[in-house]
């Protein structure tokens, strides 16, 4: 609501053209009522608004991931239909800290620990350097109605548990953990961007190829080789979310293992009936044909 209020102010001044879109995931009994209330408030502030209702079913990555994907798809569809330049979301520094903490818990690499970018494609996060407490205080100071999603206190979700842990750590240690984790994200993003740029020439050379000489990966430093392998698999339509840093490390270890190169075949199975096969000095990608 803090972001909506700020956009409404600029909309009335003619400094931007805003349209509010609230996504109803249908995961709470009162979600439709809350969505209608948000629309009413937006329109009372002079901002045209709409509800986008989506159906969410938990996939292999869980309900949170499915809801996030459905939400971004709905926002992008609304942006495209409206001819807007950007989608603005209200992610805060607190959300960023939770994202980094979740990445640490998974043992993720620098790209994941970089968290959310200020801008990703058409999505902009203007409140990413503002903590959640400040946005709530702003709403209270201006008597803006705020709705708290019941799912934000449901500890069956990993993000909710991470949020609770952050609050406990800050209270127990007396340190600005949220701000520090957000700073960690900035540092990791700078490093990840640099490494991505260094890896790009090698990644470009292997994209879309089902057979790659081992030397094109094995001769690289680990930080670059892991990025090249990731880009290679993505280019062959292996979903990025289906394999993590641990799987890439496993593949890289096989590539560097002299024993793998000496055997007739060394295989590593991947999601979606795919596999990588090391034969001599060649890295091969294979997708099993689906039965009719």
Automatic annotation (TrEMBL):
GO molecular function, one term: tRNA(Ile)-lysidine synthase activity
EC number(s) from the headed UniProt entry: 6.3.4.19
Location of the tRNA(Ile)-lysidine/2-thiocytidine synthase N-terminal domain: 1-163
Reaction it catalyzes: cytidine(34) in tRNA(Ile2) + L-lysine + ATP = lysidine(34) in tRNA(Ile2) + AMP + diphosphate + H(+)
Any one Gene Ontology BP term: tRNA modification
Alphabetical keyword list: ATP-binding, Cytoplasm, Ligase, Nucleotide-binding, tRNA processing
Primary subcellular site in the record, as a coarse category: cytoplasm
Superkingdom: Bacteria
Enzyme class: ligase
Cellular compartments annotated: Cytoplasm
A matching Pfam family: ATP_bind_3
NCBIfam families: lysidine_TilS_N (TIGR02432)
Family recorded in the similarity comment: Belongs to the tRNA(Ile)-lysidine synthase family.
Name used for this protein in its record: tRNA(Ile)-lysidine synthase
Organism, as annotated: Brevibacterium aurantiacum
């Amino acid at each position: 609501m803090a972001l909506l209020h700020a956009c409404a102010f600029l909309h009335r001044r003619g400094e931007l053209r805003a349209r509010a879109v609230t996504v109803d995931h249908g995961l709470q009994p009162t979600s439709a009522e809350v969505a209608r209330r948000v629309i009413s408030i937006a329109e009372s502030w002079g901002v045209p608004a709409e509800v986008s209702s989506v159906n969410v079913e938990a996939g292999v990555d869980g309900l949170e991931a499915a809801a996030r994907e459905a939400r971004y798809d709905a926002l992008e569809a609304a942006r495209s239909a409206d001819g807007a330049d950007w989608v603005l979301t209200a992610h805060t520094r607190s959300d960023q800290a939770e994202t980094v903490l979740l990445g640490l818990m998974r043992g993720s690499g620098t790209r994941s620990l970089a968290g959310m970018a200020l801008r990703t494609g058409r999505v902009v996060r203007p409140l990413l350097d503002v903590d959640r407490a400040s946005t709530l205080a702003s709403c209270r100071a201006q008597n803006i109605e705020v709705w708290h999603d019941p799912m934000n206190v449901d500890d069956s979700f990993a993000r909710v548990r991470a949020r609770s842990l952050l609050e406990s750590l800050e209270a127990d240690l007396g340190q600005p953990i949220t701000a520090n984790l957000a700073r960690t994200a900035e540092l990791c993003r700078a490093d990840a961007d640099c490494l991505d740029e260094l890896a790009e020439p090698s990644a470009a050379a292997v994209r879309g190829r089902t057979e790659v000489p081992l030397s094109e990966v094995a001769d690289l430093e680990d930080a670059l080789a892991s990025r090249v392998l990731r880009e290679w698999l993505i280019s062959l339509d292996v979903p990025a979310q289906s394999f993590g840093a641990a799987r890439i490390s496993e593949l890289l270890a096989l590539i560097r293992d002299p024993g793998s190169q000496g055997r007739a075949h060394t295989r590593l199975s991947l999601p979606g009936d795919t596999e990588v096969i090391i034969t001599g000095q060649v890295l091969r990608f294979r997708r099993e044909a689906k039965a009719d």
